[in-house]
Amino acid sequence: MSTEATTPSTPTPSSATASTPRVAVVTGGSRGIGRAAALRLAADGHAVVVGYAGNRDLAEAAVADITAAGGRALAVRADVADEQQVAALFGTAAEEFGGVDVVVHAAGRMYLAPIAELDLTELDALHHTNVRGTFVVARQAARTLRRGGAFVGFSSSVVGLAFPSYGAYSASKGAVEALTLVLARELRGRDVTANTVAPGPTATDLFLDGKDEAAVAALAAQPPLERLGTPEDIAGVVAFLASPAGHWINGQVVRANGGIV
Predict the structure, then answer these.
(1) Total number of domains constituting the chain
(2) What CATH number is given to the structural domain containing 109?
């Protein structure tokens, strides 16, 4: 099932009940870590709205996998930096499934270049998606999430690792980390958590693009566990933070990277 995001809606926060199972909105849910998170949350019993920017076929494939396993899901197109489309994304979740309990904001853009060679047009596009998009989604989550809910954003361990050519991307993810504790504190009294996951090198198309085998092997050798992360590794962390078991973790950046310093 797919729908276009067109009509803003801001439901009043309320608690989910046994008759209204938990509902998750996952941006960037059509591939990579976002897709793995959507499938994991569905397996844990959430109805899932798979947000996607442009590739409807991949989003529909994720929905098909969820429904084939007995879950409930639909795909909704929305630009995360567009406040009206994001409001409509959340509104569709409320109309179809009764509300929103979990928001996983996995949508993002990567652009790599030495700072001296930055294409400022690419820099603007990167920050439009990664910074503005995070604020737009976090704002809607803060207005919408029901009691007991969770917001999970995404940073990257490169913020601490400081790899050359990652300056623009790291700066955008540093903004996400700065937002996290502020959002958690602003949600005081709502019983809603806000955390950010910062994966290390993870075997996704976004990460592997442009890297040769030697570069990938060198990165895989860095963690003490001596491998790249998988989308499923990260999805497990997301599922924990979104669950009642992880509800005491709040305002944190969780570096899920296998032990890279």
Answers:
(1) 1
(2) 3.40.50.720
Query: Is the residue at 6 inside a domain?
Result: no
Instruction: Note whether residue 13 is domain-resident.
Output: no
Identify the pLDDT of residue 1: 53
pLDDT tens figures, 39-51: 999 999 999 999 9
CA dist 10 to 76, 82, 105, 147, 188, Å?
16, 15, 18, 15, 19
Domain membership flag for residue 261? no
Model confidence band, residue 8 (pLDDT cutoffs 50, 70, 90)? very low
In a domain, 33, yes or no: yes
Residue 169 appears among annotated catalytic residues: yes
Instruction: Give SS3 for 57.
Output: helix
Question: Side chain identity at 235, as an amino acid letter?
Answer: A
Residue 197 phi, psi dihedral angles, 5° rounding: -100, 135
What's the distance, CA 188 to chain centroid? 22
Question: Which of the following is catalytic: 52, 111, 166, 169?
Answer: 169
